[in-house]
């Protein structure tokens, strides 16, 4: 699972593909969720970055 980090918030997705102008996000059923232009994309992070090794506590990486 991945998280696309945008100025306005975040979008969870199962996978993403790079295109010439941005990334395409897809859900667990391989259905298209959104297109995010590179200019609006801060980062794509693996969901594991948000959970600690001590359990499922959410933590901030910002």
UniProtKB/TrEMBL annotation:
User: Keyword annotations for this protein?
Assistant: Plasmid
Q: Which domain of life is it from?
A: Archaea
User: What name has this protein been given in UniProt?
Assistant: Uncharacterized protein
